[in-house]
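In this section we walk through a basic example: taking a raw amino acid sequence and producing a predicted 3D structure, encoded as discrete structure tokens. The instruction is simple. Fold the sequence below.
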Amino acid sequence: MPAKKKSAPDRILLTGGAGFIGSNLALEIERRWPSARVTIVDDFRSGDFRNLTGFRGDVVAKNAVDYAPRATFDIVFHLASITDTTVHDQRLQVHDNVEGFRAVLGLAPRVVYASSAATYGITDERMSETTPPRPANVYAFSKVVLDNIAREHGAIGVRYFNVYGPREAHKKAAASMIYQLAVQMRSGRRPRVFKHGEQKRDFVYVKDVVTGTLLAAERGRPGVYNIGSGLARSFNDIIAALNSALGLSLDPDYFDCPYDFYQTFTEADLAKAQRELGYEPRFDLETGIRDYAKWLGWAAARAGREVDAKK
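The resulting token sequence is shown next.
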């Protein structure tokens, strides 16, 4: 049975709130808890002010490492991180990701932080929270260190799988493959994916990720929770779903994968999140891509060109 919901927080700190997941979370927090006072800390290296259109709270333009608030908070959501896995500067990745987390511990009785499915490494098995970590790059290693530190402080980790959805365009090359393939296809180009498009990932829509993160804050116990869709889908599936949503019929353009640390399979075991949080993803791949295409204003005419409410 899920744990009982905690009372609505009054003061909330959200690091990385101008980024992709952070901005979606910030806006949903204000919608769900309208009386809460929300402070965002973001150094805008990988965030964008346009993601926060409509945000009513405070914004502090600092790295989480350097933030020294004068007051404490009821809850901290720590999403600030270098999320680009192609950044191989080990000191930079570990310093910013780990020390930023360390800096916010103790600022609230509840700390919810972003972990990552990258901690599981390269495997062909379904991933549960008890699976030993096997990080294949320094980004994943930094997230393993966060998980280690969190155990000593009673923090709650949300282990995000392959997230896609509104407010990610500013990430450019680090944006989800779903967005990048959609951009290629919208321009009339064949979508480029590694041979032969059968690599499978757990692609989870950002609206489900936000829901899972808030459930972790309300009901979670110390530890980590997988937040994904619960089903691995191939890149060929993505292309088929995008063709349908965008009203196109483009074939894939396959090429060799240049990375030796590339995860060819991710799939979240959601049993713990379902049992303890009551988390149930609402969007499968096709539904999520259709919703995203509407939000972008790119939906095929037969699916309706109206832009979905920007929640």
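Looking at the output, two observations stand out. The chain has a mean pLDDT of 93. The helical segments are 20-32, 90-104, 138-153, 177-186, 206-219, 235-246, 271-277, 285-296. In the next section we compare this with other chains.
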